[in-house]
Structure formats: C-alpha cells, structure tokens
Amino acid sequence: MKKQIYPFLIFLFLAPALLNGQFVTKQAGFRFGYRSGIFYQVSQEAGTAEVGFNTMLSFKESGIQVTGLRIFYESSLDNISPNLLFSWGYGGHLGFSYSDHIRFMGENYYYRNERFMPLFGADGWLALEYRIEDIPLTVSLNYKPFIELTIPAFVRVVPADFAFSIAYIF
Length: 170
Prior knowledge:
This protein has one domain (2-169): Porin (Beta Barrel). The protein contains one helix and ten strands; from the N terminus they run αββββββββββ. It has one helix spanning 2-18, and strands spanning 25-33, 37-46, 49-60, 63-74, 84-104, 107-132, 137-143, 146-150, 154-158, 162-169.
C-alpha cells in the first residue's frame, strides 16, 4: 500500500508544475505553523484579481499530507502599500498518519500499537502577503482553518492554524 501512495502524492505535489504554460508567476517556499510544510504555487491574472493554485506537502505524526488550495489575491490594500495583498481561498487535503493514539473532543484515545490512519478534509485560507520586489521574495501571515475526517471515524476541527510563510518568486 505504501509503495502506491508515495508516487500518487508526488504526482499531486508536482501537478501544478506541469500546467505552467498559461501561468505568469510561480513561487516555492515554506510554511511554518500547526501544519508546516513546503509549497509550490502558480498564479495567473484573472480580470482585476490574481488566482493562485497552491499545493503543499506536510509531514506530521509519522505521516504525509497533501493540501491543494485555490487562492484569490485582491489588490484592496493598495492605499497602504502596493506590495501588500489580501488573499482568501479554499481547498482540501488528503494523507495519512501513523499513531498509537488520537485526540478527539479534548480526550486521548489510545491503541495497543501504531495504526495506519488515512485522513481527508476541507481547508479555508486567509492571508496578508507582502511581496518584496527588490529581491523576488514574499512574506505572508496566513490563517488556514480545517476540518478533517480520520479513519477510524474521528473528526478533527482545527479553527486556529495560523502560520508564517516565506517564498521565492521565479
């Protein structure tokens, strides 16, 4: 089972790179927060806004998680700074973890040994991003609440996944 999951997760992480023909901006970076990870994003102009497709790879609880987000950048903060952008978006994630316990509603439930636990969920996205033009770099404060279902049948709601991200634009 493991041998089939890894190529699929790698494909999901690299899929946006294969679609770069119509995109104008690419960035790769790190997210530091509750769900930390590495990400790759491609963006394009869409009318007066910019639309980004973000894929993030996270490692937590001896497992892997792939998150895909569609992000909309608004230029509503031009009066403060032309390089400061507000963004919002949505997406989902899937992955797995290995653990001998799970936390649900403030309680820990323990198993005799570690278990393979697949998971999937839905994500939201809010962020303030500052783009440094002298060096092709972005710095972002972001908020990514999520809800996920972990099998065997536990629902995890994380309303406070705040993070700091830094990315290189190429």
